[in-house]
Specification:
The chain is mostly helical. The protein has helices at residues 4-29, 33-53, 57-81, 96-117, 131-142, 144-166.
């Protein structure tokens, strides 16, 4: 039979999956941009909790800080800066939802076929007690070059965004 801790883990996983999928659907289907932003934040929080239940505590913390904090604030600022008059739906229905539903169904069907025909060899993978220390060791020793390239790329993107936001003051 199934142990009680396995059953509890399965119940928590299923509940979290329903919350994540429900809030993600709410983001797409909501006609109000503010509601979409709040539902997206709830979805990110659910994903962070999912990471923590899967013993990836560092990824869970990064998910909370980066997405639930930063992206939510960014979205809310965007909503406040692009506010329309009351009564006007900020996220009106268009024909793309039918295409999105068709593509989503196709994607789910293809993923179902792939998961039935592809056999996985579950060999356990890499398990760590100290996830933060091991991630730091990998990023600063084994993968230092890609880490630094990503840092330079992000710096260039930040400088480009500042230049674009500042604009040309001479003309």
């Amino acid at each position: 039979g199934m142990a009680m801790s396995e059953l509890a883990s399965l119940v928590v996983f299923c509940l979290l999956a329903m919350v994540i999928l429900g809030t993600a659907l709410g983001v797409v289907l909501s006609n109000n941009l503010v509601h979409s932003a709040l539902l997206m934040t709830a979805c990110f929080i659910g994903v962070g909790i999912m990471y923590i239940t899967l013993e990836a505590d560092f990824l869970g913390a990064v998910e909370f800080m980066t997405y639930s904090g930063g992206v939510a604030v960014l979205i809310v600022m965007g909503v406040m800066l692009t506010h329309k008059g009351e009564g006007v739906p900020s996220n009106p229905f268009n024909g793309r939802k039918i295409w999105a539903a068709a593509l989503s169904g196709t994607f789910i069907a293809v993923m179902g076929l792939v998961s039935t025909f592809v056999t996985s060899s579950n060999q356990g993978g890499f398990v760590s007690e100290d996830t933060v220390g091991d991630l730091a060791d990998m990023m600063l020793n084994s993968y230092i070059l890609p880490f630094e390239i990503a840092a330079v790329l992000l710096l260039a993107a930040l400088l480009g965004a500042i230049i674009l936001a500042k604009g040309d003051e001479e003309s």
